[in-house]
Model the fold of this input.
Amino acid sequence: MKKLIYSFLFAVVLMSSCQKKDDATPDATNVTITSVKVITMPLTDNGSAWDATDGSGADVYFKIENASTVFYSHPQYVQNVTSALLPFIQTITNGYKLPSLNQSYNIGLYDYDSLSSDDFISSISFLPSDYKKDRPASKTFTNGLVQVEVSFSWE
Ligand SMILES: [Ca+2]
Ligand SMILES: [Ca+2]
Done:
């Protein structure tokens, strides 16, 4: 018996990739915090000086943190903050890339105290994924007496 060998010609179907021309910027997958501007903050600790020893104002720096982790602590403080020093900006050299967009972060303001543990002043909180569509260059957050503008770099 002879086997008949049939050759088949397969037509190559070009898959059209259905690429949509989308003008909208895609959702961001990462965000880097580049600076924090303190616009307002409580200048006293419920009426008392932040530094009771010399009656001076707070020596302010910020942390990026949540309830369990300090992700970043700014290495410099602005000394003896009074209303005349507001607003001030603290810039993060090379920025700090957040580990995830899908968890909340606090920007905590602290009063550096050389002889005791630093005083917590106040904080604002945000969830980066809320802004991944809009990719704002900066966003102002308010919590009571505290108003902070956070600058972002999205990618
Ligand atoms: Ca203090
Ligand atoms: Ca002080």
Q: What stands out?
A: The beta strands are 31-40, 60-65, 70-73, 88-97, 105-111, 119-126, 138-143, 146-154. Confidence is low (pLDDT under 50) at residues 5-18. Residues 51, 56-57, 59, 80 surround calcium ion (ligand 2) (CB under 6 Å). The chain is about 0% helix and 40% strand.
